[in-house]
Specification:
Chains A, B: Residues 11-155 form the YDG domain. The structure is a homodimer. Chain A is mainly beta. Chain A has helices at 25-31, 95-105; strands spanning 21-22, 41-46, 49-58, 66-68, 71-75, 110-117, 124-141, 147-155. At the A-B interface, helix 1 of A face helix 1 of B. Chain A binds a DNA duplex through helix 1 and strand 3.
DNA sequence: TAGACGTAGA
DNA sequence: TCTACGTCTA
């Protein structure tokens, strides 16, 4: 079985290879890839600053993330509707969004896990795509009229090819 | 590793022993004990009738379930508040509640999984307690003033003792 | 589309 | 207490 990594860290995870697949988000925690059950951006505090450790990006979902060869365009977190009748809000540069911005500034590696819709459309599976660097980010208006963040991540060369 | 059971069935699950522990609710699905990620009552249709396959009962939680030696008193599902401002409602004899009532009438076995709060209070773990029969159920007023169902389940004799 | 005994962290 | 790219069935 896979080795269990309980320590949240930046960069490569021992025993995990590019292309490894997982059936549930909780498995990502068991192996040490991504410790947040429901959040797309995980991060850890180094000194006084939060750095992103990993993101879970999903194809063909509401978030409009894009996978283009070795470039991922990822939508920030926050601003979503919880209760019917409430409006969505502008995303803020806090928590996971701030951690990704910090990772860009310090050129800190970010693990990318790709959530793939299953063919039977029953849930997702998760594939480890390797290490990326945040190249830039910007804010734009979403379909709701509220602003959201986009992060452009570029895959670090020299890793096994994507499957 | 554990054998993977993908077929939802009533009664004993191959390879699973009383006392087996699991860290996440999704693991219960992987081994075939309980297929619903968030619902406490799982069930399967036999002919025209839904029968309960399993319940996940939790100590020291809002639900006021009781574990007393070989008797479990379990609270039905439904009636909960989703949005702030909405009132809770009376529980209805549908879905999981109906399945448990059917299991009682037909003396059909129900697996009981016990959700235990961890000592560090970070989430729960799940222990398989074995097979039970529904002895009776009734409706009562909850703290909210709305009615809820209680199911009394009795452990079938001859199984390994509870840990 | 909504509803259900999920989980961890801020 | 609340949010957050959960996950399945009816």
């Amino acid at each position: 079985g896979k080795r269990v990594n309980t320590y949240k860290k930046i960069g490569q995870v021992p025993g995990i290879q590019v292309g490894d697949e997982f059936q549930y988000k909780t498995e990502l925690r068991l192996v040490g890839l991504h410790f947040k059950t429901m959040c797309g951006i995980d991060y850890v505090k180094m000194g006084d600053v939060n750095f992103a450790t990993s993101i879970v990006a999903s194809e063909g979902y509401d978030y409009d993330d894009k996978f283009d060869a070795d470039v991922v365009t990822y939508t920030g977190e926050g601003g979503n509707v919880i209760c019917k009748g409430k409006k969505s809000e502008d995303q803020k540069m806090v928590k996971g969004n701030l951690a990704l911005a910090n990772s860009m500034r310090h050129k800190s590696e970010v693990r990318v896990i790709r959530g793939q819709e299953r063919l039977d459309k029953k849930g997702k599976r998760y594939v480890y795509d390797g290490l990326y660097l945040v190249d830039k980010y910007w804010s734009e208006k979403g379909d709701s009229g509220k602003s959201l963040y986009r992060f452009k991540l570029c895959r670090i060369p020299g890793q096994p090819p994507l499957t």
